[in-house]
Specification:
The protein has about 120 residues and is an alpha+beta fold. About 45% of the residues lie in helices and about 10% in strands. It has a single domain (about 5-115), classed as Roll (Mlu1-box Binding Protein, DNA-binding Domain), CATH 3.10.260. It has helices spanning about 10-15, 30-35, 40-50, 65-75, 90-100, 105-110, 110-115, and strands at about 15-20, 25, 60, 85-90.
Length: about 120
């Protein structure tokens, strides 16, 4: 039986993939929302397992990259107020997130497989 809470429209996922520094990535804030957790919980899980996230899996956005994203959306408050810039996860980083998050949705819904299946990162 499928849990309706784990069904996320493909179009929604596609809109959350960005090209940053020549790489297709998803942001920590968007991934946290997709997994049904707070962004700080996602970042804490990553930091507890930082050895699993080399820079080709994940990197933190620079101030300029954050400004560029804000200007793309023409919304000055994009991302809300935050102390630190969000993290960007490549396809491999998204796959690793599923293994480190201790969250029912992360276990049931492996986002990385879905992304790869639909060639969203290609």
């Amino acid at each position: 039986m499928t849990d309706n809470k784990t069904v996320i429209p493909e179009e929604r996922i596609e809109k959350q993939i960005f090209l940053i520094s020549g790489q297709k990535v998803m942001l920590s804030t968007d991934l946290a929302e997709l997994y049904g957790i707070e962004p700080r919980v996602l970042v804490q899980a990553v930091k507890r397992n930082i050895e699993r996230f080399p820079e080709d899996f994940m990197f933190q956005l620079t101030d300029q990259e954050v400004l560029n994203l804000k200007s793309q959306f023409v919304i000055s408050s994009w991302g809300g107020s935050r102390r630190a810039a969000p993290y960007a996860f490549t396809e491999q980083g998204v796959a690793m997130l599923s293994s480190v998050l201790r969250n029912k949705r992360a276990i049931l819904f492996n986002l990385s497989r879905r992304l790869k299946k639909h060639h969203l990162f290609i």
